[in-house]
Amino acid sequence: MEKRIQTPLTKEIARTLHAGEYVYLTGTIYSARDAAHKRLTESLARGEELPLPLENEIIYYLGPTPARPGQVIGSAGPTTASRMDKYAPKLLDLGQTGMIGKGRRSEEVIASMKKNSAVYFAAVGGAGALLSKCIKKAEVIAYEDLGAEAIYKLEVEDFPVIVVIDCNGNNLYH
Fold first, then answer.
1. 3 state SS of 25
2. What pLDDT sits at residue 164?
3. Cα 174 to Cα 170: distance, rounded to the nearest angstrom
4. Torsion angle, alpha carbons of 63, 37, 119, 105, to 10
């Protein structure tokens, strides 16, 4: 089964997605990796406002390579999602509905996904050059000092992902 989704990813839409479905995302998503996730949770602990919206948003676990002349972004392949597992439940509790990465997730993250009607998508590792062609605009919006690990606002068109874990906990890795 194949679906096309225009972001934002509402909880209602997330509930219609099932493990194993191919999805093409169009609209705004955000990128953040380990260092950015650490800063986000530190900001939350201090009671500060976050530099990106979380409600109904998707975070792509991505640290792109530098763009070559004439390109929007460099290679844009997913990073290992488990490195964000200690941060993900807090962000899901704040309304985040989607995550894109590669690899397994912890039981704590899966429980939080079920509680918050969120989904985990996988992007194909090793296909970063091809995935970058689906990114039409990339803008650093926070933590520029982190370089490739800064938070980017990305405009994507027909960005291909697979639902690996749905909001009911169905898991392709099992």
1. strand
2. 97
3. 8
4. 90
